[in-house]
Q: What sequence folds into this?
């Protein structure tokens, strides 16, 4: 492959089949430009992630950026600077939203592996994931107001993660902040040295394998519904999800295994 070809933005996918299911590792690769998302990269990402959702054996997806400098450094400023009308702007930002929605629509948990700059559209993509782990050297921010535009689409998820006060601070001031702050603000679930980030992810993947696959899918779908429902309807949706779990023998088998293990512990004591 030539250097020119190697430099072209691309989305790479690696699927690992393990006992208990498959895990997909998705890498956004525009490393020479901090993995910023241009139209071609966003289109490829949506196509790739949507296809993964059709894999019935899939247990989780991990999303990261190529190299060790950035998760995603934002949307392509050069493309945005060339937008000439509200219609063109709307079409561009809908592509950012499509990337985030593809992640949120996956039926399995999605983990953001944040390894460096996580700015603008990159932070929106991370917010769209179910779990986030960042290396301690990572930098976060929503600097759009400094470029004459508001932070939009999945920036709307930030108040649910960090609260309205912090969300206002991040969005209105446009300042960057580090992984320690992101962890303290509950924007990420874990912040650790870069050498430990994959260990954290493996621990989460191992934990997912201790749960039954359909139950995890039902739980993610229910969480998504909770986001849009008032409390009474959210509770009702949970009742239906609970009933739906018994459409297969997965609960019976899991509960029998639990009872057997409990009996064995008692017998051994």
A:
């Amino acid at each position: 492959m030539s250097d020119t070809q190697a430099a072209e933005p691309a989305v790479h996918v690696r699927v690992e089949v393990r006992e208990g299911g498959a895990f997909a590792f998705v890498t956004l690769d525009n490393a020479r430009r901090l993995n910023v998302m241009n139209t071609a990269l966003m289109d490829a990402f949506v196509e790739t992630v949507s296809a993964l959702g059709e894999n019935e054996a899939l247990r989780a997806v991990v999303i990261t950026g190529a190299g060790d400098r950035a998760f995603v450094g934002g949307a392509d400023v050069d493309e945005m600077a060339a937008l000439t009308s509200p219609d063109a702007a709307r079409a561009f930002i809908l592509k950012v939203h499509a990337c985030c929605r593809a992640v949120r629509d996956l039926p399995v948990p999605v983990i953001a592996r944040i390894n460096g700059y996580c700015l603008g559209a990159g932070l929106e993509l991370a917010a769209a994931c179910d779990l986030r782990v960042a290396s301690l050297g990572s930098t976060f921010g929503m600097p759009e107001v400094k470029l004459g535009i508001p932070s939009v689409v999945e920036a709307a998820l930030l108040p649910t993660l960090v609260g309205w006060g912090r969300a206002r601070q991040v969005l209105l001031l446009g300042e960057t902040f580090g992984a320690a702050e992101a962890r303290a603000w509950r924007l990420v679930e874990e912040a650790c040295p870069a050498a430990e980030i994959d260990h954290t992810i493996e621990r989460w993947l191992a934990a997912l394998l201790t749960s039954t696959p359909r139950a995890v899918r039902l739980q993610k779908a229910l969480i998504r519904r909770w986001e849009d429902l008032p409390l009474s309807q959210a509770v009702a949706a949970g009742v239906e999800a609970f009933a739906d779990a018994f459409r297969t023998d997965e609960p019976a088998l899991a509960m029998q295994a639990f009872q057997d293990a409990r009996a064995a512990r008692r017998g051994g004591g």
The chain has two domains: 3-209, 213-268. The domain at 3-209 is CATH 3.90.226.10 (2-enoyl-CoA Hydratase; Chain A, domain 1). Confidence is low (pLDDT under 50) at residues 1-6.
